[in-house]
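Hi all, a correction to my earlier message: I attached the wrong file for Protein-glutamate methylesterase/protein-glutamine glutaminase. Here's the right sequence:
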Amino acid sequence: MNSAKVRVLCVDDSALIRDLMREIINEHDDMEVVATAQDPLVARDLIKQYNPDVLTLDVEMPRMDGLDFLERLMRLRPMPVLMVSSLTQAGSEVTLRALELGAVDFVEKPSLGIRNGMLEYSDLIARKIRAAASSRPQRAAAERRDPPRVIRAPMVSSEKLLILGASTGGTEALRVVLEPLPANAPAILIAQHMPGGFTRSFAQRLDRLCQISVKEAEDGERILPGHAYIAPGDSHLLLARSGANYVARLDNGPPVNRHRPSVDVLFRSAAEQAGRNAIGVLLTGMGKDGAQGLLEMRQAGAPTVAQDEETSLVFGMPREAIARGGAVEVLPLGQIAPRMMVLVEESGRAQRV
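and the right structure:
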């Protein structure tokens, strides 16, 4: 991004939402709304006219559904798109589909009757627009992927753990990492920046796609091989021990690095409780969450991996981890799953010697 303002086009059939988004975005000196549109057909012409840096897009609109428009847009003219979503079960499923189609991220629609606290909400939208403007837009996932080849699982003890963290772009990156893993892979704990109400749909979606079982983590449950546990939105996920077993702990403490769940919180607990029995992986995302935690995992003897810049939708978190010395290896997204299995096997072999 250069010093010029980020140019935003807002598409929503609600005049109130369009006005509110204009007000929120124009509060920030580094961005501006260049135009608004009440439906995708109007937006199509405005995109040609204004060539915006970022598009904010509602889903339910007249004349053309937002997902249909997004799919066509990402096929013909990929650009950073930020979805504006309602916090409902149906809304979360549609939002996940939009991320699959190539949207960078999403924000929840603000509460229309409440303007107190809007500055905090405004800052969140601004951060996501900045991240979107610096992202690498991608075409629809369905066009660019082949059926995954399932990786052979190493023969290791149930002590081995895979600890993953992600933010912007992470929903699709996690799919790429988890989908080829075998049903008897080591247990996996995941912190993905996502608000409450969306993580359950996200876990269910991954569970349908993967050989392993994927679920929202529950406080106190035992961590088992062949399972992935996703931090519920609005709760920190920590690794803990109960006797000889690993268990999940949920914590509603304050946000860390502006996030709850925080990747740093999960990584730090893995460093403390599992040490060299864990493998840390930091994927795409804006900001710095997870960078210090990955370094602490490395210092505790764990192999650590960061996603490379070329395949990261937003390179902020991996870049910070690399700069701090937390990443032993930097890999393209497609190489991370097989490399994790190799690292698990190498780690187990080293500890048997």
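Sorry for the mix-up. The chain has two domains: 6-139, 156-352.
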